[in-house]
Amino acid sequence: MNSVDFLLTNKDITYEIRTEIKRLGRPIPDLIISKTDVGKSRNYSRNFNISVYDRFKWLCGCPKRNKLFCFICLVMGGNRSAWTQEGCVGKGRHKATV
Fold first, then answer.
1. pLDDT by 10s per residue, the chain, length 98
2. For residue 71, how many other CB atoms are within 10 A of its CB?
3. I need a surface site. Which of 22, 56, 68, 91 has the fewest CB within 10 A?
4. At 44, which helix (H) or strand (E)?
5. What pTM, to 2 d.p., does this model score?
């Protein structure tokens, strides 16, 4: 019930279901996300680090889509952005002060 797929496909969630989702907590799977950036003198490789969930309490992940989402925005029906629709894999900036 608290999966990203459930939250994306069920827009009309009752208060009771939202409360249960909050009780279950956000999904924090270990994702396989990596990116290589080209620098002036060498290439830099970045990989997803599961400790990012500790730093950003609003963040959740979807192993099926292999992307990150804003859990609070998904549960509460936040504004339509990459954090609530497509998910993010890179260094995105969340505009909400969560």
1. 779 889 888 878 899 999 999 999 999 999 998 888 888 888 888 889 999 999 999 999 999 999 999 998 888 876 667 677 778 776 655 544 33
2. 28
3. 91
4. strand 43-47
5. 0.79
